[in-house]
């Protein structure tokens, strides 16, 4: 009979398995075809997911809001350093429970630090953050914080960061080469990333367009923290 593994080492292995593959530990997005192609059936809990954008407003919120709306009914969701003032009426129309939604205003050089602290708190269901940094060490801290806090960590960054390595479990890109946004899976830990691209639906839920296209500072804001 082989010896039992060292407790700390074995525990780390099994924690990693639960973080990414345990049933019920994923969050379905607004795109059923994408969920079916991912090994977790959606965004993995306790791990970092990245969305790399050719520009903001290509449908990233349309992809995420259905998942965040379901989660916000029972857990708290936090936005960190969004590029525009969150538009509360549109978010409510998309199904977000505003009583469970918070917003952290952070300077660009503090956004990832603030995100890490929020993830480590262990009292949040999801943290959605925006940043342009390519700091690999900061990204690794986010991955560790997501695991320890058992939260969904979703980071939106510019598409140019796709050329750099990342510890994220899931990396998605959204581009619009012919005017219609399409999504590709750049990295999918534990599985081969599907070669096909996914077309993001146009139109979307009532009020969503205002949320994505309203200039900063012109929408009725959520209260910042």
Report on this model:
The chain is of the alpha/beta class. It has one domain (27-213): Rossmann fold (3-Layer(aba) Sandwich). Helices cover 31% and strands 20% of the residues. The chain contains seven helices and ten strands. The chain has helices at residues 7-21, 32-37, 60-72, 88-93, 111-120, 136-149, 208-213, and strands at residues 26-27, 43-44, 47-53, 77-80, 101-104, 126-130, 152-158, 170-175, 182-188, 198-199. Strands 5-4-6-7-3-8-9-10 form an eight-stranded mixed β-sheet, sandwiched between helices. Strands 1-2 form a two-stranded antiparallel ribbon. Helix 4 links the parallel strand 4 and strand 5. The longest helix is centred in the N-terminal third of the chain and has 15 residues, at 7-21. The chain is globular.
Q: In CATH, what is the class? A: Alpha Beta
Q: What's the helix count?
A: 7
Q: Specify Rg, calculated over alpha carbons.
A: 17 Å
- Give the ordered list of helices and strands: HEHEEHEHEHEHEEEEH
Low-confidence stretches: 1-24, 203-223
Counting helices, strands and paired strands, the structural category is alpha/beta
How many β strands by DSSP?
Answer: 10
Strand content: 15-25%
Instruction: Tell me the overall shape.
Output: globular
The overall pLDDT average reads: 82
How far from one another are the termini? 56 Å
Secondary structure: helix percent: 25-40%
Number of domains: 1
Features:
8-stranded mixed β-sheet, two-stranded antiparallel sheet, Rossmann fold, disordered C terminus, alpha/beta, 7 helices, disordered N terminus, 225 residues
